[in-house]
Specification:
Layout: H1 5-34, H2 52-56, E1 105-113, E2 116-123, E3 128-133, E4 137-138, E5 141-146, E6 150-155, E7 158-163
Antiparallel strand pairs: 1-2, 2-3, 4-5, 5-6, 6-7
């Protein structure tokens, strides 16, 4: 299989570059380890005495290894981070709310007499007109206080002040 002339030249150039780069790398490695004349290795012989610590130390006997017992495992973090107690969630069945009865009402007026105060309460959803005193209830509406211009009442346990025209 013959390669075209241009490809052959580029292939030869590529191979030569790789060989040159690897040659430089190997040269650096060998010169680093072999050309260090600065380091002199002292060989212990009769003319060069051994270090006194090395002479006095016995190498055959192992040193005594001591250990201490820890009060707590260092890999547990029970003192630092206390795990939270898991509380089981109670599964409450949601009870559907009973349908709310809505009343379309209006207050037509106030009657103030010696016997007490009353309002003229018009239930427009049932076409009823009622006379209610302070403290009386009609369905979910309770009359709390009656004045000449305003009526204070609670509707679904929410206080409201209604102005009278």
């Amino acid at each position: 299989m013959k390669m075209p002339n241009k490809k052959r030249i580029s292939f030869i150039l590529l191979i030569t570059t790789v060989i040159v780069i690897w040659g430089i790398i190997l040269f650096r490695i060998t010169t680093h380890f072999l050309d260090n004349d600065d380091i002199q290795i002292d060989i212990a012989n009769e003319s060069l005495p051994l270090h006194p610590v090395a002479v006095n130390k016995k190498l055959d006997e192992p040193e005594e290894i001591g250990y201490i017992t820890l009060e707590q495992d260092p890999f547990t973090f029970s003192d630092i981070i206390k795990p939270e107690k898991k509380i089981a969630a109670k599964k409450n069945k949601i009870k559907p709310l009973p349908p709310v009865e809505t009343i379309n009402y209006s207050i037509k007026g106030v009657i103030i007499a010696n016997s007490g105060k009353m309002i003229i309460f018009n239930d427009e959803s049932n076409s009823k007109t009622l006379f209610l005193r302070e403290g009386e209830e009609y369905k979910y509406i309770k009359i709390l206080k009656i004045d000449t211009k305003t009526v204070l009442l609670t509707e679904y346990k929410i206080s409201k002040e209604v102005n009278i025209n």
